[in-house]
């Protein structure tokens, strides 16, 4: 009888010591969901691998902020672009954040969060240019853009501005550095990479104005996964409402 009594007391003591504290953990913390998120970390400044082999960039910081605000966790998985959408369909990960433009065609096979950034076309000029504020200010001058892109189409819309096209956008920036074109038009993340991140250019180039086309990025989830979509949107909305995205923009895009 004494042995049973002592064993019972020991069991109660162990319960109080190890189990009872867990009962005081808030339900929200205990139920926090961890999402595996795919990203093709090859496109700075949005997503890339740094010198310490960490996946970093605008998209990474933004989703981390959204996760904190939305009450979930994120783990990033570096995934090649070729096949990244098939992976979401196969259930290899929960979501994709990889500078994915929201299009009507893509909406047929996948769902998107609400947009988190307008990555539309923007203007880059030499820092010594103190007068250019928009494309229309470049009449009589050459402006570079990648052939077949939205940027090239936007340049064509401005009468008097001469378009010079390139197979690769990097060649346009090389020509601007050499003084062969007065400006370059490209999407915002690419402009930020060349004008603000690259050592050979950041002292000489600047971004002027705001994006003048609308090309929004969103987080991708499997078609019909409304629960996950609501969770992501909750976090994204809070980031915007609190202005947390301003610091992320300043860090990576300005």
Largest sheet: 5 strands, mixed
Number of domains: 2
Beta-strand content estimate: 15-25%
Model regions low in confidence, pLDDT < 50 over at least 5 residues: 1-23, 25-30
Helical content band = 25-40%
Question: What is the topology, as strand order, of the major beta sheet?
Answer: 5-1-6-15-7
Roughly how many Å is the radius of gyration? 25 Å
- Taken in chain order, the helices and strands follow as HHEEEEHEHEHEEEEHEHEHEEEHH
In total, the number of strands is: 15
> What is the overall silhouette?
elongated
How is the secondary structure organized here?
Layout: H1 2-23, H2 27-30, E1 33-39, E2 42-43, E3 47-49, E4 55-56, H3 58-70, E5 72-78, H4 84-90, E6 95-96, H5 104-107, E7 110-112, E8 117-118, E9 121-126, E10 142-146, H6 150-156, E11 162-166, H7 169-177, E12 183-187, H8 188-197, E13 205-208, E14 216-217, E15 220-222, H9 226-241, H10 244-252
Parallel strand pairs: 1-5, 1-6, 10-11, 10-12
Antiparallel strand pairs: 2-3, 3-4, 6-15, 7-15, 8-14, 9-12, 9-13
Helix pairs in contact: 3-9, 3-10
Summary of the model, kept short:
The protein is 40% helix and 23% strand.
What does this structure look like?
- The chain has 254 residues and is an alpha/beta fold.
- Helix content is 40%, strand content 23%.
- It has a five-stranded mixed beta sheet, sandwiched between helices.
- The radius of gyration is 25 Å and the shape is elongated.
């Amino acid at each position: 009888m004494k042995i049973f009594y002592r064993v019972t007391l020991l069991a109660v003591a162990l319960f109080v010591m190890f189990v009872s504290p867990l009962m005081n953990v808030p339900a929200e913390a205990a139920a926090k969901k961890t999402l595996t998120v795919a990203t093709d970390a090859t496109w700075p400044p949005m997503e890339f691998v740094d010198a310490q082999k960490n996946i970093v960039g605008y998209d990474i910081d933004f989703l981390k902020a959204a996760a904190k605000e939305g009450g979930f966790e994120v783990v990033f998985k570096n995934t090649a672009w070729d096949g990244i959408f098939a992976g979401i369909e196969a259930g290899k990960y929960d979501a994709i954040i990889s500078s994915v433009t929201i299009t009507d065609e893509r909406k047929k096979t996948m769902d998107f969060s609400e947009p988190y950034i307008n990555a539309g076309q923007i203007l880059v000029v030499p820092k010594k240019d103190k007068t250019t504020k928009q494309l229309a200010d470049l009449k009589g001058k050459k402006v570079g853009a990648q052939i077949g892109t939205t940027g090239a189409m936007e340049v064509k819309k401005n009468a008097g501005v001469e378009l010079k096209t390139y197979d690769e956008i990097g060649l346009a920036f090389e020509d601007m550095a050499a003084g062969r074109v007065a400006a370059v038009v490209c999407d915002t993340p690419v402009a930020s990479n060349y004008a603000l991140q690259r050592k050979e250019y950041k002292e000489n180039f600047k971004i002027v104005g705001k994006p003048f086309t609308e090309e929004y990025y969103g987080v991708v989830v499997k078609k019909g996964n409304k629960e996950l979509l609501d969770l992501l949107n909750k976090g994204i909305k809070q980031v915007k409402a609190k202005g947390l995205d301003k610091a992320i923009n300043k860090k990576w895009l300005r």
